[in-house]
Design brief:
This protein is an alpha+beta fold. The chain folds into 2 domains: about 10-285, Butyryl-CoA Dehydrogenase, subunit A, domain 2, CATH 2.40.110.20; about 290-580, Butyryl-CoA Dehydrogenase, subunit A, domain 3 (Up-down Bundle). Helices cover about 55% and strands about 10% of the residues. The chain has 19 helices and 11 strands. The protein has helices at about 10-20, 20-25, 35-55, 55-65, 80-90, 110-120, 125-140, 145-155, 285-320, 345-375, 380-415, 430-440, 445-460, 465-480, 485-510, 515-545, 550-570, 570-580, 585; strands at about 65-70, 75, 160-165, 180-185, 190-200, 210-215, 230-235, 235-240, 245, 250-255, 265-280. The strands form 3 sheets. Strands 3, 4, 5, 6, 7, 10 and 11 form a 7-stranded mixed beta sheet that branches. The model has no long low-confidence stretch (mean pLDDT about 95).
């Protein structure tokens, strides 16, 4: 069975040494978010993740969520309900929520670190509270005062959870095709009728109520995505005094039988004239939806990061213990019958790949959390606007790269175990199965690539890219003359220049042929991800050198950065060549040419 130990040393390094988050928190008005409090929150998050939910990870996989067809009710695996009660009682459901609604008002960045630990410890369990945060944000930004009063406090407290009900059987990411209907009534309520699929935590036994945020069409709605509205549809109706009323006309029709995350209930939800209230403006539901979706995409990126970390920890331990063959350069442990496999170059390649992607990816994910804090609490309008542009640019990179790298990292972890990685008792195969979904829900990797290339770069004229390139140039200029950083600064600056040139090339081609955007998008996404991590690895070495950490810690950062620049950053060459080949190699074959 796999185990998990929160990587607090590297989390602290990322937060304090590289990102200097304590200073940012102070400038944003988080007067209580000092080092002492942050350390206490991290320690307690680690304790909960390691001792309460990590032991339930295998149980959730083998037992799974169960569905009672007669009642339409879903039961979570043994131990999940008790763990959630501890989570809510500890105030974790409201860690980042405003104090006026019962939250603790802590920075999003701190919640980001907590989420990594939760998802590493037990991804399936972490899905139940995951979307409540997105639903809370949607209510905060788009809800009327009475809706906030009625729904936010119990959600922040953890007595209720929230969902996003978007997808329908006939439409995946093309929400313009959805058919769920909303009929208005004179009393201000609406009746919602339709079926939604793939609804994470659509039903469960953890809380007394579930608040569904549902996309639907009003009778006068224009066609396509411009005709979508969002509605609050609780599982149990809510009385004016906040107490629960009668059951609403919403029921789970089935749960999906999935490749992984068996403990997470993925529901088909049937709305049969359920009572709901409009949130936001009519026909403007996509605006509220993206408030939830963007937060969820960042959280799913953290799911990939957490799974990668857990897989790496177990592979590293196994590589240190497993004896097999002698090192090619001679026995390293002659007193033993064979050397541990960590001495072999190919095992080191797999371990270093995981380490480099995880530690660099952690900074990428945590930076997104810090940007969220600046967007919400920045004192200067220009600062908030710049942070918002950069956050929008980085969101598809965080979501897609951290989850696709999770596939790679869990694969390498399995390979380190050899045949033992394929059988259940070691837990590696569960991590590999669980990781697969992270590249799909909240928008597939292809959708993230189109969002980055089509919207964030072309439509928005690369606002966020310009900000990030400015960060790279500022760092390189700051390190000018620092010979200890030359081996990283020079190639980083070269890639930044190439990033601009590749972007401009795609823009020129797209002006003549729009298919060039779709043809380049996937490679452009990963090119961007690898250059982004190059920046964070160069920053990591600089931060480690300037820190009071032991020399062994500093050496580990530098050697891992060297591996990244030598072995992983060159992947950008393949992506550049693929982009340069243009759309012709993809679009030339006729539909019939693919075969019968």
């Amino acid at each position: 069975m796999s185990t998990y130990k929160a990587p607090l040393a590297d989390i602290r390094f990322a937060l304090f040494d590289v990102l200097d988050s304590e200073r940012t928190f102070s400038s944003l008005g988080f007067v209580d978010a000092n080092r002492e409090l942050i350390d206490a929150v991290l320690e307690e998050s680690a304790r909960f993740a390691e001792t309460v939910i990590a032991p339930l990870n295998r149980i959730g996989d083998t037992h799974g969520a169960t569905y009672d067809k007669a009642t339409g009710k879903v039961a979570t695996p043994p131990g999940f309900k008790e763990a959630y009660a501890q989570f809510a009682e500890g105030g974790w459901t409201g860690l980042e929520s405003p104090v006026e609604y019962g939250g603790q008002g802590m920075p999003h960045t701190l919640g980001t670190a907590m989420k990594e630990m939760i998802h590493a410890a037990n991804l399936a369990w972490g899905n139940f509270p995951l979307l409540s945060h997105g639903a809370t944000e949607a209510l905060l930004h788009h809800g009327e005062d009475w809706q906030k009063q009625a729904f936010l406090a119990p959600m922040v407290e953890g007595r209720w959870t929230g969902t996003m009900c978007l997808t329908e059987p006939h439409c995946g990411s093309d929400l313009g095709l959805l058919k769920t209907r909303a009929e208005p009534h004179p009393d201000g309520y609406y009746t919602i009728t339709g079926t939604k699929i793939f609804i994470t935590a659509g039903d469960h036994d953890l809380t007394e109520n579930i608040v569904h945020l549902v996309l639907a069409r009003l009778p006068d709605a224009p066609a396509g995505s411009k005709g979508i509205s969002m509605f609050i549809v609780p599982k149990f109706k809510v009385n004016p005094d906040g107490s629960l009323g009668e059951p609403n006309a919403v029921r789970c029709g089935a749960i999906e039988h999935k490749m992984g995350i068996h403990g997470s209930a993925t529901c088909v939800m049937n709305f049969d004239g359920a009572a709901g209230t409009l949130i936001g403006q009519p026909h403007k539901g996509l605006m509220a939806m993206f408030t939830m979706m963007n937060g969820a995409r960042l959280s799913v990126g953290l799911q990939g990061l957490g799974l990668s970390e857990r897989a790496y920890q177990n592979a590293l331990r196994y590589a240190r213990e497993r004896l097999q063959m002698r090192a090619l350069s001679g026995a390293k442990f002659p007193e033993k019958p064979a050397d541990p496999i960590i001495v072999h170059p190919d095992v080191r390649r797999m371990l270093l790949t995981q380490k480099a992607l995880i530690e660099g990816g952690r900074l990428l994910g945590f930076q997104a959390g810090l940007l969220l804090d600046i967007v919400d609490h920045g004192k200067d309008e220009a600062e908030r606007a710049q942070a918002d542009a950069l956050l929008g640019f980085l969101t598809p990179i965080v979501k897609a790269c951290l989850t696709e790298w999770a596939i790679e990292c869990t694969y390498h972890a399995q390979q380190c175990f050899g045949g033992h990685g394929y059988i259940q008792e070691w837990g590696m195969e569960q991590l590999a199965r669980d990781a697969r979904i992270t590249t799909m829900y909240e928008g597939t990797t292809g959708i993230q690539a189109l969002d980055l290339m089509g919207r964030k770069v072309m439509q928005l004229k690369g606002e966020g890219l310009i900000v990030f390139l400015g960060m790279i140039e500022a760092f390189c200029a700051e390190q000018a003359g620092n010979e200890a950083l030359d081996e990283f600064v020079a190639p980083l600056r070269a890639r930044a220049q190439e990033w601009q040139e590749v972007t401009q090339m795609i823009g020129r081609r797209a002006a003549a042929n729009p298919d060039e955007i779709g043809a380049a998008a996937w490679d452009y996404l990963f090119y961007s991800g690898y250059v982004t991590l190059a920046y964070w690895w160069a920053r990591s070495v600089a931060a480690a050198d300037a820190s009071s950490h032991p020399q062994a810690f500093k050496d580990a950062k530098r050697e891992t950065a060297r591996f990244y620049f030598a072995r992983l950053l060159p992947r950008t060459r393949t992506h550049v060549e693929s982009i340069a080949s243009g759309a012709g190699s993809l679009m030339g074959l006729s539909a019939e040419g693919f075969g019968d």
